[in-house]
Each structure stands twice: as C-alpha cells, then as structure tokens.
Design a protein that fits this description.
Elements lengths: L1 E10 L5 H12 L3 E6 L5 E7 L2 H13 L6 E9 L8 E3 L2
Parallel strand pairs: 2-5
Antiparallel strand pairs: 1-3, 1-4, 2-3
Helix pairs in contact: 1-2
C-alpha cells in the first residue's frame, strides 16, 4: 500500500480545492484519506492506495489544480505512515 502526505501551496483555499480533491479521489477510485485546510493557507492531504498507478494519477491531477479556480504553485509529496482509511473525506 502506498501512503503519502501532500501539502499543496498556491491558490488552494476558497476555490473549492478540498471538494475537487474529494471528487478526484472518488472518480479515480481506490484512493482513501483526508483533505483539510491548514492555518498557513496551504491544504494538507493524507492519501493511500493499493495502486501505484492510481496514486500517481491522483497526484498529477492535484498538481494541475482540481478545480478551475485553483492554482497549485508547489506540491510537497512525501511517503508517510498513518492508520488506514476506509473512505475519503474532507476534515473540518
């Protein structure tokens, strides 16, 4: 299982970014985790998948900006260890 922690910087808050990430995870399938806004204006994502190909696609699509108004200037992606998720949700 591939698990990553992603931090997205740029125009990522107030533009539907978290909903776009949730939609990507659902559309691609086999992507589980959480997405949330950070106090510093970035968006955090924990994502896991059994498929390296699906995880790669998920990361590529986030890098493009999951909504028309979003603009990702920097995407930090690191391998991570966390408890397994059984769904993908927005964390408030």
């Amino acid at each position: 299982m591939k698990k990553v922690k992603i931090t997205a910087s740029g125009r990522v808050q107030g533009v539907g970014f978290r909903w776009g990430v949730l939609s990507l995870a659902t559309t691609i399938g086999d992507i589980y985790g959480r997405v949330w806004n950070n106090d510093d204006g970035t968006v955090g994502i924990l994502a896991q998948s059994n498929s390296s190909e699906k995880m790669s696609l998920f990361i590529q699509e986030i890098r493009k900006g999951p909504t028309p108004m979003a603009s990702v200037s920097y995407l930090d992606v690191n391998m991570a260890a966390f408890d397994n998720f059984s769904d993908f949700k927005i964390k408030y």
